[in-house]
Structures are given as structure tokens and as C-alpha cells.
């Protein structure tokens, strides 16, 4: 939504311009009208609009003077200058102040439409560039291809505050269907934010990031200079999330969100994600289809056995999707007494657990049944899948081989489990769990190992290469960060490899 201020000392001009803007085909909100330059500056400081229409000649502070001062208050605002005087000196002055356009009054609807179209196109181009840089920076942070210091400097993210939300989409549907659900969810949220949230277009960015373990994170960043206005939007964002989560839920799908209860700086972001992720398993025992704040989740985590039982159920669900019958049976046996104890103290949690198991495992657990009777149904779920296991094992082995091949071919690029999962049409959570099960190590650790091995090979075969060159060739943008990982892998620094290969130079 384009947020606009109209500034003109003539009331009729303001009314006419408002009427034409509201009749245009664009999604525009007029946030204020000013009758002089001083009032305009007050509104600019309050609203930080995307676009200002300003009359050159106004009493007191002129339009051009207001424009000059307003740029310091809101650097990202675009300006269209209006005047009834066709004097080139005014136009030249306005252009020196980097006005986007210059229109003579009275403005025709056709001229206004053309100008609005150009402004929107220019702003959308800048917004896309900002979004791409923001997403690249956040991905680099979580996948550790750049150091946090470099991210802050290169992308200016030290100038931002962040709000984190983690999502889980639970379903018994096949992986391909779950992949579609994941993308539908992201698209639905993006569209809701685009049409409903009143952020200034260039003061914020929203990115959806697949974390190394496959979880989906929403990262909203806003410039610290826009802190006051951004905080006014947070309750609205939470309202949108709650509404979209409820609408997305079906008999075969549950969406749960966990949101941090405070904004973070860049240097707190990774730790904040880790802390928030600890609450994700709790969704198994909580009412479904909700956005949970961090402090709410913490209160449930403090209840006796909530964390232990939820983590056990979480493990059981993953094993069911991985079709690991033996481990599934073991975990189910351990879970039974825990559920029985919980049933005595917290029947509401048992009700939530029943709903969750039905949707994520595709089983039927009657609310009138005793907990003991659930076990038979849960055993049958895995037994019915056991008949398909032979073909599935082949499929799983093929998936892992495709991941290995992908890494061996693309290790030098900025890749992650989310990108690979998308390419082979499964969910990142499933692929992350499957990779860990089949290889015994987490995907990010494997990717780092391959990159370090390739780096060592380059040092040994091409001793003339500098550390920075090798780092870039294996997918790292920060020499310092690469050196740290290399030292952790081989217990020596890259420079020591050079000395071993060229002892006469040492």
C-alpha cells in the first residue's frame, strides 16, 4: 500500500487531488493533508510516507524548503512537486533536491495516473532490491556463510530491529502435498502483509527462511529510525497471523506459530531463534491453530513433564514419517506411562494431544476411548506403513544420494536444506530428519565438512591461491569466518597448510 501526504495551501486543490487519487486504480492510503510547510514536516516525522505531493509556493515555509528539511526526516520518501508557475527555475531547484516528478496545476487525472504508476514502479523496484538483500543477509547468517560482523557492515542490518516467528505445519499428507502447503502458507502471509500492514515501503523487510534443521522462520526487520511506527504495527501483525493460522487449518493440516515477545538486534538474532525453537515441540500438547508468544510458551514449559512428553511425541511423529518401525515402537512404549500420568493431571493437554496425533499421523483416536486404547490405534498406524517400507527404503536412499550429489556439485554456492528440499519436492523438516537418520550427522555439519575438504584440496593442489580466494571458491564470503571453520575442522590454520607445502618459504 502506497502511503501518501498531500501538501497545498489551497483546500480545493487538496480535495481535488485526494478525489483523483482515491479514484485511481492503485492501492493508496492518504495518511495526512498539510496546508503549509511547517505542518507538512510534522506529518512527515509522524508518518514517514512513501510519497508526498507538495506545492512549491505555500505560506511560511515553502514547499521546496519543506522538501529539503523533510529529506532528513524521512530519507526514503519520494517527492512530486506541484506548482501553478511554469518557471524552469523552480523545476531545476526541485530536480536538484531529487524530486521524483514535477507537475503543473491543475493536474489532470491522466497526468496523475502516469506519475503514480512511475512512482510505484520505482518504489517496487527498490523494495524488491531491499527484500533480496535482506533475505540474502538473513540466510547467510543462519547458514553461516558470512560472519555476523560482515552481514552488519555489508547489508547495514545493524541499523535494524527484528521480530522472529517460527512456524510448524503438521500433517499426515504425503511429502509432495506438505511441500505445497508450505509454499501456500508463505504466499498467503506475504499477500496478507502486502495488503494489510501499513509499514512504509522502504523502512521494513520481511523474509521467510528455512533454518538448517528445516524449520520455517519469519523474520521481520525494521529500521531503528522507524521504531515507534513499527511497534504500532506489531499488534496488527499478530492479529493477521492469528487469523491466517485459523483459516489455514483443516482436518489434515495444523499450523502453529511461536513468536518472540521482544524485538532483537542483529547480534541477538541467532540466539533468539535457538531459544524460540526450544518451544516448538510444545505444540503437541497445546491448543492447535494458534500463535503463541514466547512468554506463554515458557509458562507451559514450566509445567511438570510438559517438555519431556512433548519432545517424546515430537520424536514419535518424526519416526512415523521416516517409517522407522523399530524405533517408533520403542518410543511408543516409553510414551505410554507418560501419557497416562498426564491424563490424570491435565485432561486438556490429552485432548490437545489426541487432536494433534489424529492430524499428523492420520489415525482415529476416539475422545471417549481410554488412553490405553489409543496405543493400539497408534501401533496400527505404523504397521500399515510397514507394508510399504521396502519401496520407501529405496526412495529414502535415493533422496539421500540426491542430497549428497547436490552438495558435491553445488557446495560453492549459498545452499541450504530448504533449497534442496524444494528441488526434490519434499519438506525441509522431513529431509533434515531423514539425512540425520541415514548419515548420522546434521546437514549443515556435512555441508561444512565437504566445503572444508574441498578447501584443503585447493590449498594442497594450488598453493598459490590466497585464503580469501579459497574461501570464496568453497562458498564463504568472510575470510575470518572461513578460517575459524577450517581451524575447527583440521586443528590448524590455512597458513600452516601453505608452510607444509612450501617449507622453504616458511
Brief write-up:
The chain is of the alpha/beta class and 506 residues long. It has helices at 11-23, 37-47, 63-73, 88-96, 109-143, 148-155, 175-196, 227-248, 269-277, 294-301, 306-322, 325-345, 347-361, 371-386, 389-410, 417-423, 428-439, 443-461, 467-473, 479-490, 494-501; strands at 2-7, 28-34, 51-55, 78-83, 101-104, 160-170, 204-210, 216-223, 254-259, 291-293.
Question: What do you see in this structure?
Answer:
The chain is an alpha/beta fold and 506 residues long. The chain folds into 4 domains: 106 residues, Rossmann fold (3-Layer(aba) Sandwich), CATH 3.40.50; 161 residues, Alpha-Beta Plaits; 84 residues, no CATH class; 108 residues, Arc Repressor Mutant, subunit A. Helices cover 60% and strands 12% of the residues. The chain has 21 helices and 10 strands. Strand 1, helix 1 and strand 2 form a beta-alpha-beta unit. It is globular and about 85 Å long. 35% of the residues are buried. Its main location: cytoplasm.
Largest β-sheet summary: 5 strands, parallel
CATH architecture annotation of the largest domain:
2-Layer Sandwich
Shape summary: globular
- Name the average pLDDT: 86
CATH topology description of the largest domain: Alpha-Beta Plaits
Span between N and C termini?
A: 62 Å
User: Mind telling me the CATH class of the largest domain?
Assistant: Alpha Beta
The total of helices stands at 21
Share of helix among residues? 55-70%
Domain Response regulatory: 3-120
Subcellular location: Cytoplasm
Keywords: Cytoplasm, DNA-binding, Phosphoprotein, Transcription, Transcription regulation, Two-component regulatory system
Protein name: Two-component system, response regulator YesN
Amino acid at each position: 500500500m502506497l502511503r501518501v501526504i498531500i501538501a497545498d495551501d489551497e483546500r480545493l486543490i487538496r480535495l481535488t487531488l485526494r478525489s483523483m487519487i482515491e479514484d485511481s486504480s492503485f492501492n493508496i492510503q492518504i495518511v495526512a493533508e498539510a496546508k503549509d510547510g511547517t505542518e507538512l514536516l510534522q506529518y512527515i516525522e509522524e508518518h514517514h510516507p512513501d510519497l508526498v505531493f507538495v506545492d512549491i509556493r505555500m505560506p511560511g515555509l515553502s514547499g521546496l524548503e519543506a522538501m529539503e528539511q523533510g529529506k532528513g526526516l524521512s530519507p526514503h520518501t519520494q517527492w512530486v512537486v506541484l506548482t501553478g508557475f511554469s518557471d524552469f527555475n523552480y523545476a531545476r531547484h526541485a530536480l536538484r533536491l531529487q524530486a521524483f516528478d514535477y507537475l503543473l496545476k491543475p493536474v489532470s487525472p491522466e497526468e496523475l495516473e502516469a506519475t503514480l504508476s512511475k512512482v510505484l514502479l520505482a518504489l517496487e523496484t527498490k523494495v524488491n532490491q531491499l527484500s533480496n538483500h535482506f533475505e540474502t543477509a538473513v540466510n547467510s547468517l543462519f547458514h553461516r556463510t558470512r560472519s555476523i560482523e560482515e552481514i552488519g557492515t555489508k547489508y547495514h542490518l545493524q541499523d535494524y530491529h527484528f521480530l522472529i516467528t517460527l512456524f510448524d505445519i503438521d500433517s499426515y499428507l504425503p511429502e509432495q502435498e506438505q511441500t505445497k502447503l508450505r509454499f501456500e502458507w508463505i504466499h498467503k502471509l506475504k499477500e496478507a502483509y502486502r495488503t494489510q500492514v501499513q509499514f512504509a515501503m522502504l523502512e521494513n523487510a520481511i523474509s521467510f527462511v528455512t533454518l538448517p534443521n528445516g524449520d520455517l522462520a519469519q523474520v521481520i526487520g525494521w529500521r531503528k529510525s522507524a521504531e515507534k511506527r513499527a511497534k504500532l504495527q506489531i499488534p496488527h501483525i499478530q492479529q493477521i497471523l492469528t487469523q491466517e493460522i485459523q483459516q489455514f487449518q483443516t482436518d489434515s493440516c495444523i499450523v502453529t506459530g511461536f513468536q518472540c515477545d521482544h524485538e532483537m538486534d542483529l547480534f541477538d538474532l541467532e540466539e533468539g531463534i535457538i531459544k524460540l525453537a526450544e518451544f516448538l515441540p510444545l505444540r503437541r500438547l497445546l491448543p492447535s491453530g494458534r500463535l503463541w508468544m514466547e512468554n506463554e510458551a515458557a509458562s507451559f514449559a514450566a509445567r511438570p513433564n510438559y517438555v519431556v512428553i512433548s519432545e517424546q511425541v515430537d520424536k514419535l511423529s518424526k519416526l512415523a514419517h521416516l517409517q522407522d518401525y523399530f524405533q517408533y515402537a520403542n518410543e511408543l512404549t516409553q510414551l505410554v506411562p507418560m501419557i497416562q500420568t498426564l491424563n490424570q493431571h491435565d485432561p486438556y493437554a490429552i485432548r490437545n494431544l489426541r487432536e494433534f496425533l489424529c492430524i499428523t499421523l492420520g489415525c482415529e483416536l476416539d475422545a471417549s476411548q481410554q488412553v490405553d486404547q489409543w496405543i493400539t490405534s497408534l501401533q496400527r498406524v505404523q504397521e500399515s506403513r510397514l507394508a510399504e517400507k521396502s519401496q520407501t527404503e529405496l526412495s529414502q536412499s535415493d533422496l539421500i544420494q540426491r542430497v549428497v550429489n547436490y552438495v558435491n556439485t553445488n557446495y560453492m554456492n549459498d545452499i541450504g536444506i530448504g533449497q534442496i528440499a524444494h528441488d526434490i519436492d519434499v519438506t525441509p523438516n522431513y529431509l533434515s530428519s531423514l539425512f540425520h537418520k541415514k548419515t548420522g550427522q546434521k546437514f549443515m555439519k556435512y555441508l561444512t565438512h565437504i566445503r572444508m575438504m574441498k578447501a584443503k584440496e585447493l590449498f594442497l593442489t594450488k598453493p598459490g591461491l590466497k585464503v580469501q580466494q579459497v574461501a570464496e571458491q568453497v562458498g564463504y564470503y568472510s575470510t575470518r569466518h572461513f578460517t575459524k571453520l577450517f581451524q575447527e575442522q583440521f586443528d590448524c590454520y590455512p597458513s600452516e597448510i601453505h608452510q607444509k607445502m612450501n617449507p622453504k618459504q616458511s
